[in-house]
Design brief:
19% of the residues lie in helices and 36% in strands. By secondary structure, it is of the alpha/beta class.
Length: 208
């Protein structure tokens, strides 16, 4: 496995509820370099138009040996997309994205859709937003936690046909529609559950 961690930018100064593995390559999207610095993580790449990273955060990343990939402010991709592309181009097979729960709603909404883009389908892609965990599922995935934990399944980019095992409200080849709450607030019926996506793409969200 080739592991990458992408740290998105944002205003939050709260501790990040995630710990990268020692072998992970860490990519900071713009002011994600500041968040990584506060968390005490090394930064290997800084990507973006660098309009929000602090001078100290950028200097610290450079002092660590980070490669800085600067893009123009007028661009057609978000800093998060540029960071994900860099990870994919460098052979990432697993990507954990650390989003900022205090960030703008439009940024978080777009980020959730970006994660499920076909361009990143070659990697297992997960994300954390504060206490919330997300996973993009194409095919099958195992969801772990404690009995009673909330699990929400959201189709992305169109309807998705889903079968579940060991969730309280079972789905059996059922079509979930993007404009429906049918997949909202399910619960783990065991310490782990299976989600099988027969058609389409979903986000599996574990709040808290």
């Amino acid at each position: 496995m080739t592991r990458f961690v992408v740290v998105a930018g944002g205003p939050s100064t709260e501790p990040v509820r995630f710990r990268p593995t020692p072998d992970a390559t860490i990519v900071a999207a713009d002011s994600g370099a500041d968040r990584a610095h506060r968390a005490g993580w090394p930064v290997h790449h800084v990507v973006g138009d660098l309009d929000s990273v602090s001078p100290d955060g950028l200097a610290h990343a450079r002092a660590q040996g980070a490669q800085v990939h600067r893009h123009p402010e007028d661009k057609d991709a978000s800093d998060l997309e540029l960071a994900l592309r860099l990870a994919i181009d460098r052979g990432a097979t697993e990507i954990d994205v650390v989003l900022d729960p205090a960030g703008r709603f439009d940024h978080l909404l777009v980020a959730a859709h970006v994660l499920a883009a076909e361009a990143y389908a070659s990697a297992v892609l997960r994300a954390v937003v504060g206490r919330t965990r997300l996973q993009v599922v194409r095919g099958s995935a195992t969801i772990e936690g404690s009995v009673g934990d909330l699990v929400t399944i959201v189709p992305i980019g169109g309807p998705a046909r889903v079968t579940t095992t060991d969730l309280s409200f079972a789905l059996s080849g059922e079509w979930l529609q993007p404009a429906s709450g049918r997949g909202l607030s399910n619960r783990l019926a065991a310490a782990s559950a299976e989600v099988d996506v027969l058609d389409g793409v979903v986000l599996v969200i574990q709040p808290g």
